[in-house]
Design brief:
By secondary structure, the protein is an alpha/beta fold. Helix content is 45%, strand content 15%. The protein has 13 helices and eleven strands. It has a six-stranded mixed sheet, sandwiched between helices. A three-stranded mixed sheet has the order 2-4-5. The model is unreliable at 195-205 (pLDDT under 50).
Length: 308
C-alpha cells in the first residue's frame, strides 16, 4: 500500500487539504494520512473557516511514500518541523508534491532550487522573486520533475493528483478515479487558459464543438487549415483563439489527445501497436514511438506491459 501523507499546519487552505484526501482515497492502492502536530486553523481566501484535529502526527509522515503540501499563506514562514520533514523525505527517496502556494514551502526547504515549478499564476512572480533559483512556469497546470511535483492554483491540485495516479497506476485507473470525483482525468491546456487573454477580434467564441470534432477525428491527418475551416476562422485567428482558450496550439492539443488515446488503447485492448498508430493518427509505429517516448518516457510496448 502506497502511503500518502498530507501535511497540515495553521493557515492551510481547506480546499487544498482535501484534494489529495479525496483523489487518493478513491484511487486504488493508496492509504491517506493527514498529519499535524496540533489542532490547526484552515482557511479560505485568507480567512479562517474551520479548525481540525488530524489523526496522525508529523512524525507519521516520515514513513510516507508521498508527502503532499497543500497551499497556505505564502507570507507566513512554514514551521521548521515541516521543512525538516520535507528535506528528510527527499533524502530517503520519497516523492514530495505541493498544491498551489504549497510551492513556497518546498522552495523554503530548498527543494525547488534549479527545478521547474508551478504555483498559482497570481503569485508566480512573487515565488520567482523570493526564490530566484526556482524556474517558475506560470502557464502550466502542474510540473512533474520526477521526485518533486508542483501544481498551479487551487483546483489544479486535482490535475496533479490525478496525474500521480496515472503515473503510478496507469491511465485507466486515473480515468476511473476521475469519473468518481467527477473530474476529467486530464484537462487540455495549462494554467494559461485561466489568465486573462486579450483578443481584439472576439474572446467569447467557444471552441468546444471544434475540440470535440478534433477528438472524433484523431485518425485523420488534420491540418491547421482544416481545423480553422471547421471553426469558421482564419488559421491565424484560430491559433490566437486556441491559445487563449486552451493555453496551447491546435497541433499541440491534437498531439496530446493522440498520445492519451494511445495510452488508453494500450491499457485496455490487445490491438497491435501498428493499428494503434493508425487509429490515433500517428500513421506509423516509428512516429508513435517517438512522440509517446517524449511525453510518457517509455515505449508503447513497455507501457502496455506495465499497465495493461
Amino acid at each position: 500500500m502506497h502511503v500518502v501523507a498530507v501535511l497540515a499546519f495553521d493557515g492551510i487552505v481547506g480546499f487544498d487539504l482535501t484534494i489529495p484526501c479525496q483523489v487518493f482515497s478513491f484511487a486504488p492502492g493508496y492509504e491517506v494520512r493527514v498529519c499535524a502536530d496540533s489542532d490547526i486553523a484552515a482557511t479560505a481566501a485568507g480567512r479562517e473557516t474551520f479548525r481540525l484535529s488530524a489523526p496522525y502526527g508529523l512524525d507519521d509522515a516520515h514513513r510516507a511514500d508521498t508527502v503532499v503540501v497543500p497551499g497556505g499563506d505564502p507570507a507566513s514562514p512554514p514551521p521548521r518541523a515541516v521543512l525538516e520533514l520535507l528535506r528528510e523525505a527527499v533524502e530517503r527517496g520519497a516523492r514530495v508534491a505541493s498544491i498551489c502556494t504549497g510551492a513556497f514551502v518546498l522552495a523554503a526547504a530548498g527543494l525547488l532550487d534549479g527545478r521547474p515549478a508551478a504555483t498559482h499564476w497570481l503569485l508566480a512572480g512573487d515565488l520567482a522573486r523570493a526564490y530566484p533559483e526556482v524556474e517558475v512556469d506560470p502557464s502550466v497546470l502542474f510540473v512533474d520533475d520526477g521526485q518533486v511535483l508542483t501544481s498551479a492554483g487551487v483546483a489544479s491540485g486535482l490535475d496533479l493528483c490525478l496525474h500521480i495516479v496515472r503515473r503510478d497506476r496507469g491511465a485507466a485507473a486515473a480515468a476511473e478515479t476521475g469519473r468518481l470525483i467527477v473530474m476529467p482525468p486530464q484537462r487540455p491546456g495549462g494554467q494559461a487558459q485561466f489568465i486573462e487573454h486579450r483578443d481584439p477580434v472576439d474572446d467569447t467564441a467557444d471552441l468546444g464543438a471544434t475540440l470535440r470534432w478534433m477528438q472524433d477525428h484523431l485518425a485523420e491527418p488534420l491540418t491547421v487549415a482544416e481545423i480553422a475551416a471547421h471553426a469558421a476562422l482564419s488559421p491565424r485567428h484560430l491559433s490566437r483563439r486556441f491559445r487563449a482558450q486552451t493555453g496551447t496550439t491546435p497541433l499541440r492539443w491534437l498531439l496530446d489527445r493522440r498520445v492519451q488515446r494511445a495510452r488508453e488503447l494500450l491499457e485496455t485492448t490487445g490491438l497491435p501497436v501498428e493499428r494503434i498508430a493508425r487509429t490515433t493518427g500517428f500513421g506509423t509505429v516509428e512516429t508513435l514511438r517517438y512522440h509517446f517516448g517524449r511525453q510518457v518516457g517509455t515505449t508503447p510496448t513497455a507501457y502496455r506491459a506495465a499497465f495493461r
